[in-house]
């Protein structure tokens, strides 16, 4: 398989290669992983490797079918997606697909039906799909993409071979950021750590100016730890309530760096390398014990919010608990 466009995912690629080499292709594959993990990238790679007319090193990205696939104009490739005004994929969409694949394939080779966000299929839509999975038309393959399997009927799951999309290593994420968006290495390392191995999230964070400015305000604001002025930071939390997890992650990663630098003095262990001056300045402001308490307090607040504690009180208590002035 030609994987020159793919970074990481080697175990998954190895199992796809085994399947392609054996020629034992089943009718349905399910790609699962969180949003941004690479389900579409990996399922498209698999589909293109099946469709490509090149003799080896598929997909070649240059033959007619590869170009048709890339432009979204391959007559034997179908995409079922949630419609913008709906919250689920409804049965009519599956019926439309079933009608469309009754005819013979247009080109020699396989027909591929992608079902994006398959976890959003209604029960009725799943039951309709099940009939087709049980008796699929010739040369037809279903690629289901789902963030989780819990919403899918066991009877659907049992018809699918599952590909799990794992997290990428920090190095892979840094490579993706520097090759796709030319992000500087020290910035990429911070984003990689905050993306937790999710390439889609890393790419989104790198281009997200709000996120960058939140990070700057939060880490600079920690210089006010131990003073009530630290409550000014609540503004960032109030304005970005929908992404409070990212804010907690920013804080934890920064406090971790302060602690590691305080205990070891080694820059090579530090992730926030774009902020060395600030880190050097703040490290004398805290004791190691205070930094450890702060990491715990952030984690505790994260848990409390999940249990629906009052947002403002939880955040303000966390900020006030940060003890500076060592
Ligand atoms: Zn090709």
How far apart the termini lie comes to 57 Å
Helical percent range?
40-55%
| CATH superfamily label of the largest domain | P-loop containing nucleotide triphosphate hydrolases
Which CATH architecture of the largest domain is right?
Answer: 3-Layer(aba) Sandwich
> Roughly how many Å is the radius of gyration?
24 Å
Low-confidence stretches: none
General shape: elongated
Number of strands: 5
Number of helices, where a helix is a run of at least 4 consecutive DSSP H or I residues: 15
* SSE pattern, N- to C-terminal: HEHHEHEHEHEHHHHHHHHH
Per CATH, what is the topology of the largest domain?
Rossmann fold
Structure keywords:
binds zinc ion, 2 domains, 5 strands, Rossmann fold, alpha/beta, elongated, single chain, Zinc Finger, Delta Prime, domain 3
Architecture overview:
The protein has 326 residues and is an alpha/beta fold. The protein has two domains: 155 residues, 3-Layer(aba) Sandwich (Rossmann fold), CATH 3.40.50.300; 114 residues, Up-down Bundle (Zinc Finger, Delta Prime, domain 3). Helix content is 52%, strand content 8%. The protein is built from 15 helices and five strands. The chain is elongated. Zinc ion (ZN) binds next to helix 3.
Q: What is the fold's blueprint, element by element?
A:
Elements (H helix, E strand, L loop, with lengths): L9 H13 L5 E5 L6 H13 L12 H8 L5 E4 L10 H10 L10 E5 L7 H12 L5 E7 L7 H4 L3 E4 L5 H12 L3 H11 L3 H8 L2 H13 L12 H6 L4 H21 L11 H8 L4 H19 L4 H11 L5
Parallel strand pairs: 1-4, 1-5, 2-3, 3-4
Helix pairs in contact: 4-5, 7-8, 7-9, 8-9, 10-12, 12-13, 12-14, 14-15
Bound molecules: zinc ion (ZN).
């Amino acid at each position: 398989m030609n994987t020159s466009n793919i970074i990481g995912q080697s175990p998954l690629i190895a199992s796809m290669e085994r399947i392609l080499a054996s020629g034992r292709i089943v009718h349905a594959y399910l790609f699962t992983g969180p949003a941004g993990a690479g389900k579409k990238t990996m399922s498209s790679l698999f589909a293109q490797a099946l469709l490509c007319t090149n003799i080896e090193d598929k997909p070649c990205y240059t033959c007619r079918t590869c170009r048709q696939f890339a432009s979204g104009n391959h007559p034997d490739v179908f995409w079922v997606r949630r419609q913008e005004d709906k919250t689920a994929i409804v049965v009519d969409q599956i019926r439309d697909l079933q009608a469309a694949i009754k005819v013979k394939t247009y080109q020699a080779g396989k027909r591929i039906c992608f079902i994006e966000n398959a976890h959003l299929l209604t029960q009725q839509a799943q039951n309709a799909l099940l009939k087709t999975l049980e008796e699929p038309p010739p040369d037809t393959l279903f690629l289901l993409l789902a963030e989780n399997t819990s919403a899918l009927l066991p009877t659907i799951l049992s018809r699918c071979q599952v590909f799990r999309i794992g997290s990428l290593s920090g190095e892979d994420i840094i490579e993706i950021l520097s090759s796709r968006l030319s992000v500087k290495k020290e910035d990429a390392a911070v984003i990689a750590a905050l993306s937790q191995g999710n390439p889609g999230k890393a790419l989104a964070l790198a281009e997200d100016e709000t996120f960058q400015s939140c990070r700057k305000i939060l880490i600079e604001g920690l210089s006010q730890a131990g003073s009530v002025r630290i409550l000014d930071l609540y503004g960032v939390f109030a304005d970005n309530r929908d992404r409070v997890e990212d804010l907690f992650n920013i804080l934890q990663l920064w406090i971790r760096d302060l602690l590691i630098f305080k205990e070891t003095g080694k820059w090579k262990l530090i992730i926030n390398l774009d902020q060395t001056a600030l880190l050097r300045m703040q490290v004398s402001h805290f004791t190691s014990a205070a930094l450890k308490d702060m990491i715990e307090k952030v984690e505790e607040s994260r848990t409390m919010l999940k249990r629906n504690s009052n947002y403002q009180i939880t955040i303000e208590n966390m900020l006030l608990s940060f003890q500076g002035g060592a």
